[in-house]
Please model this.
Amino acid sequence: MDATFATPQPLHFHAPHKTPAQRPDAGQRVWTVAEVQALLELPFNDLMFQAQTVHRQHFDPNMVELATLLSVKTGGCPEDCGYCPQSVHFDTGVEAGKLMGVDAVREAAERAKAAGATRFCMGAAWRAPKDRDVEAVAELVKAVKATGLEACATLGMLNDGHAETLRDAGLDYYNHNLDSAPDFYGDIITTRDYQDRLDTLARVRNAGVSVCCGGIVGLGESRLQRAGLIAELANLSPYPESVPINHLVKVEGTPLADQPDLDPLEFVRTIAVARITMPLARVRLSAGRQSMGDAVQALCFVAGANSIFYGDKLLTTGNPDVDADGALLQRLGLRTGKPMPTP
Model:
């Protein structure tokens, strides 16, 4: 593939999944896995140049969104996701808790806003929430919206009507990650299948709620499988407005605790390819920043990341603290705000 950026040409694509949420809209490029892999295999300088070029075409290159993530219901999840310390299948020291109350969530949102966040994300360790759970979270959404922040939630699989309830409460984004390529998914999770995730994304999209959907790298997948994940994301119709790219956080007690470290430059490559294939999305540098170091994070911003999770904790794992993040952004000359894409 030529290293310079060129206008995409129409391509034929045979998607492995046929849900309505994955049939590309008119005018949206469809990416084959081979094309995404070719991007991943470009010389690093060429890939970074192409990603930065695309980024500058659609975003202010020096603006970064700050989002805060709060676990509003921790532990006790019946899923067996091999990376997750909240699963009941693994002994990680995480104890199951009840859903947080409205006042506590409101106070956390106010602290996040005071620290500079513009989006507040709430995570609950459910496989699939019940109707009463969704109604309770809807009250939390209303509390967050009252602070002036964007509200996002990740609650597991949604059933019919759930996305509409959350939408009516004011939810801006629903997060539901694909995690991996379809052919690697079964090696990480056995308690739900790939189509379950696609069905939830379709319900969210059909309800008119914006989609936050990404994946995790460093699970032991091949570069080809990383390409498969990005192709799945980029071929959602439309592709997600927000794309969190997570680096595996290895937690003692989980099956992936001893997974060999991923080359940091491979993670940067993944960020760059996400930016190229989903040019109007906010690409979020998510879990795993604590172990990256400032130089790798800086490369991720050059590669097109324009959103980070901000705060000292991500659900149950650590994150760089607010002061360290602020110092890094200042050293890089990056401003904080809500990056708005231009078509």
